[in-house]
Amino acid sequence: MPRPSSMFLVATLLAACAAPGTGVAGSVPNVPVPEVDLQRYAGLWYEQAHLPMFFQRKCVGDTTAHYTPQDDGTIAVVNRCRTDDGSVNEAEGVARRVDGSTSRLEVRFAPGWLAWAPMVWGDYWVIALDDDYRWAMVGSPDADYLWILSRTPTLDPAIKADLVARARAMGYPVDKLVETPQSGEAPPR
Predict the structure, then answer these.
(1) How would DSSP label each residue in 120-188?
(2) Does residue 74 fall inside a structural domain?
(3) Which of 3, 99, 150, 170 has its CA 20 to 30 A from that of 61?
């Protein structure tokens, strides 16, 4: 017969595993918006700020993302940025819907022959979106990734402050946000 302390430990572990949430303290849920019109979302976006991440370590400014819907339902992704020596760094990838959602996507920058491997896909959740698609905020369920995007090189400081406050309430570590300088010109193709 199991000891009471063992049963308590098992019950506690099961309760912890069943508890909802990401483990990040926030006052509002970190969930994607209900729906995104992917045709309206397509096109060029200027990054305004992001959480630090390894794959953007060489980017110093003029960071953009360009999204193009494909006939097969995926989205072609081209990210560009300027590096400290003035050259352009480019990454091409593909995004796909998760469970049919238009606001919960996965993105892969690895070669297509690795698409079968789950670890090459990263979460891309649209967690805030302007009604007119002038700005967007993209995150991940674990709150490790965050981007603030705008259709123009600059974003109204009041809107940006509101987005940062929303991200904070969702549990994102916004004190680590890196501002993205924009010269007003997208890096050349």
Answers:
(1) GEEEEEEEEE-TTSSEEEEE-TTS--EEEEESSSS--HHHHHHHHHHHHHTT--GGG-EE----SSPPP
(2) yes
(3) 170
Q: Tokens representing 153? A: 């090189």
CA nearest to 47, candidates 91, 101, 102, 16: 91
* CATH number of residue 151's parent domain: 2.40.128.20
| Half-sphere exposure in the Cβ direction for 135 (13 Å, CA) | 18
Whether 113 is in a domain gets the answer yes
Judge whether 62 and 189 are in contact, CB under 8 Å. no
> Does the pTM exceed 0.85?
no
Q: Which residues contact 114 (CB under 8 A, 6 or more apart)?
A: 108, 120
List pLDDT tens digits, range 83-137: 999 999 999 999 999 999 999 999 999 888 888 888 889 999 999 999 999 999 9
Using DSSP's 3-state secondary structure scheme, residue 12 falls into: helix
Phi, psi of 97 (to 5 degrees): -70, 150
Dist. CA 80–CA 60, nearest whole Å: 11
